[in-house]
């Protein structure tokens, strides 16, 4: 068993080892390496206490990310590495935060506090894989996500782990260990204790998996997104799987049958960013979009006149996924072509502006905007080219207030 280690992470491990500490790669980077995928970040766990890590790398090379939890972020060769002291967590009386953490000397105790066996492995080039719970076999042979220890207890400690179970199942395309899956459903009310921010982070990762539908039981999702309709849910899930791995478009696919009001409430509860919520809500509101039978270019142009290009792209992917109608793909290509040629779809792109209207004798005020909108409509409907002379000529024929 050999892992090709990122050079920065190797340098951090090496420095800790030379100072006499034990240190390992841990968690996601070990899992991803075993699965044959490039890890996003390389986390390190160590016997060194945070003050020792700070002293070893120097304060200027370190960011004290979460000293009380034992985490120091170390800058090394242009990368950032989280270095966390071996620790155990005690007394999750609120179902989300440990009452306190204690630093320990043994990596195995640190691995035991982690959520799933596939996440509870550590690696050091000299010692090889430290895998006390059979994570490697679960990942590569049994192909399951399984809780470390007694599943119900682990979900009681931290309800977020219930959502993480499905997230890792979907991401790694693993089955769920039956006892773990049963406990997750039984304990699902624990999700109610978890902060909205943590829920959305995990839900977004679940929705970014290749085809997450199989790992999205209604009994769980209805707790996260109140307003979901059980009868419509199977169709929503099919649309989710048919969409590219875009969390916002997929969230809109889930919320569309609920309608804008319920969707707005669900989004509020989820506490995603304002921009994310606005985007999803726009998609839900527009999700009745139908093909008109007109030229795709014309219909695409009307969409681009009303909505941001990114929203148009998502909306057309959403409608294609919901209906399976190829016409939406044709609209999407037309919209892409219009963007490519920077075709005029907004007032700001018109070859005339407010000053031109004033020069024509229009009085300053709302009439200026109204005339520009009317000119835009001519261009969008392809009745006029976006050409200054042509537009001025047409504007002169309009009644000037
Ligand atoms: P990703 O590549 O998506 O970041 P990851 O495995 O690194 O995957 P993180 O959420 O970054 O996942 O967590 C890092 C590690 O910390 C996990 O692999 C796991 O060992 C542990 N961990 C994280 N959150 C929890 C939790 N809620 N309960 C128990 N262990 C956790
Ligand atoms: Mg991570």
Automatic annotation (TrEMBL):
**Pfam families assigned:** PolyA_pol, PolyA_pol_RNAbd, tRNA_NucTran2_2
- Record keywords: Magnesium, Metal-binding, Nucleotide-binding, Nucleotidyltransferase, RNA-binding, Transferase, tRNA processing
All copies of the CCA-adding enzyme C-terminal domain together span 252-394
Kindly list the biological process annotations in GO that this record carries.
Answer: tRNA processing
What this protein needs as a cofactor is: Mg(2+)
Gene3D superfamilies in UniProt: 1.10.246.80, Beta Polymerase, domain 2, cca-adding enzyme, domain 2
User: Domain Poly A polymerase head: where?
Assistant: 23-143
Q: What is a GO molecular function of this protein? A: nucleotide binding
All copies of domain tRNA nucleotidyltransferase/poly(A) polymerase RNA and SrmB- binding, residue ranges: 175-216
The question of whether RNA-binding is a record keyword is answered with yes
Family named by the database record: Belongs to the tRNA nucleotidyltransferase/poly(A) polymerase family.
Q: What is this protein called?
A: tRNA nucleotidyltransferase
Protein species of origin: Candidatus Faecalibacterium gallistercoris
